Amino acid sequence: MRTSTTAPTPAGHAAITARGLNLWYGDFQALHDVDLDIRQGLVTSMIGPSGCGKSTFLRSCNRINERLDYVRTTGTIQVLGHDIYAPEASRIQVRRHVGMVFQRPNPLPLSIRDNVLFGTRLHGTGRRSRRDEDELVEDALRQVLLWDRVKDRLSRKATSLSLEEQQKLCIARLLPTKPSVLLMDEPCSALDPEATSAVEELIWELRGRYSILIVTHNMAQARRASDECVFMLMGKVIEHAATEQMFVSPARRETADYIEGRFG
Amino acid sequence: MTDLTFSPSRTEQRALTNQRLLRLGFLAVTLLLLIPAGAILAVLVIEGAPGMTWEFLTEMPRDGGAAGGIATALVGTVWLTATALAVALPLGVAAAIYLSEYARDNWLTRTINIAIVNLAGVPSIVHALFGVGAFVYFMQFGKSILAAGCTLAVMTLPVVIVSTRESLQAVPHSFREACWNMGATRWQTIWRIVLPNSGSGILTGLILCVCRAVGETAPIMFTGAVFLRQVFPNGLFDKSMALSLHLFNVSTQVTDVPREIPFAVALTLILVVLSMNGVAIYFRMKLRGRKKW
Ligand SMILES: Nc1ncnc2c1ncn2[C@@H]1O[C@H](COP(=O)(O)OP(=O)(O)O)[C@@H](O)[C@H]1O
Ligand SMILES: [Mg+2]
User: Fold this and answer.
1) Which residues does chain A have within 8 Å of residue B104's beta carbon, measured at their own beta carbons?
2) ipTM attached to this prediction
């Protein structure tokens, strides 16, 4: 668990709180003064035209952007009330608590079982018994509704699964380290419609246990499968509201234009 | 009657003839290239086979190699090659890991890359003289298996580095992204995912390293290989014989050598290289055969 000098999280903290977040790739500013509160236990969708900074925001939330030495960030991001950019915060721990799912399923070239256990083995303190590991695997795979389909072939290569199953596995492998936030960057755009609705269903299943922020290009998906919706444009947050409200009566002109497909 | 006809035109016929000639030409060149390789092997087998007896392989050389066997040369080559590998492989793999996984793309990295390519082109006699200065005298290994092995290692390092680096870079970047996003450190990513999936490239480097180490004469001549020895090496600071140098000696330096001896030595040398290659290729195919992603 994260050791931090801050007080334990009081109930009611946002899952992610961004304040005055600016981010530059070299000279190019990709995020402008982003203030955002992503609520706990809900599914929040993030929409906006290509290149508006959605992925950049997600990558700031698990500090993976820092790998690029030309990236500069100002402002703060808190996860459950803890500043993830605080000097004493370790980015390894941040990534453990903030899981990321990508557009293309990217299971590791290991067995299904080893994929699920990969995260815990990285952070593991000492060896777990085989039985503990089995429990972790079963629990994670049950949560992503994959257990019954793969329980007899856990030692098979993960890459032998279908794309839908791979994507579910990529979600499952985040769970054993007990993350609080799951970030998903267009998790369904490499999938066919059936697989898409299966993964959407799964995301809805996970709602409540995890706080989920999901980037999507699919308006119908955002509308169907999220509680709140964030609309971004050119590195700024334009509107953040309950999904139904945003789609029925958007407060901003740009939002309406985007939702109705007038640009983007 | 129309004058429609599907028979080829004059120019077309000429083009067809040209094409046939060209194809024959290329085939001929390819065959020509195969002839020397085949001929060498055939001559070695025909001329060397009578000399290839169990006694030849297991007896000590006598009379400067004009009589007896090649046991000490054979064992010496194994010692030298193993030493070269033991030095070159860890250093080469470490350097490749640095260049592929840690180094940023800046002038230093580019300079190092150019240096590696150039190092591969340095003639082996230069390596030999470097080895004398660096290992025999400066490091005070003396003329020894260790000094000769290190010299061979320096000579083969570029090959090991380049082939390892290429195989590391063949591992898809998305795996690294996945690891980093799960909180793996760079080293955990390398150790658990990148290295296990680049075994075949590292093996290639190893094959090439072995082949050069077994075959080279110049780098070991001044650094640790001797003309004749009738005892097996006792450690890294011993001198030893080597097949390649022994071949040079029995072919050019010693008089009254029976005709089949140099051929038998050469045949042994080639068989050692081929069999080591065979083992490595076998493992490589096994590694490749597993579909990874
Ligand atoms: N690694 C990077 N280096 C430089 N510029 C980048 C990088 N990643 C993204 N950008 C730029 O930042 C902007 C936002 O990109 P991104 O966050 O990927 O948008 P989105 O996910 O909304 O499509 C784009 O203009 C893009 O060109
Ligand atoms: Mg994106």
Assistant:
1) 69
2) 0.88
Name the 3-class secondary structure at A182. strand
What digits encode the pLDDT tens for the residues A60-74?
999 999 888 899 999
- Nearest ligand to residue A102 Cα: 2
Q: Which atom of ligand 1 is nearest to the CA of A52?
A: 22
**B182 contact residues in A (CB cutoff 8 A):** 95-96, 99, 118-119, 122, 173-174, 177
Contact call for residues B127 and B195 (beta carbons, < 8 A): no
- Third-level CATH fold of B61-289: MetI-like fold (1.10.3720)
Per-residue pLDDT tens over the stretch B217-263: 999 999 999 998 999 999 999 999 999 999 999 999 988 889 899 99
- Asked whether residue A5 is domain-assigned, the answer is no
Total domain count for chain A? 1
The residues spanned by each domain of chain B are 61-289
Structural domain including A236 reads 14-259
Task: Give dist(CA B147, CA B134) in Å, integer.
Answer: 9
> What CATH number is associated with residue A43?
3.40.50.300
| pLDDT at site A188 | 92
Going across the sheet that includes A98-101, the strands are A98-101, A181-185, A211-215, A43-47, A228-233, A236-242
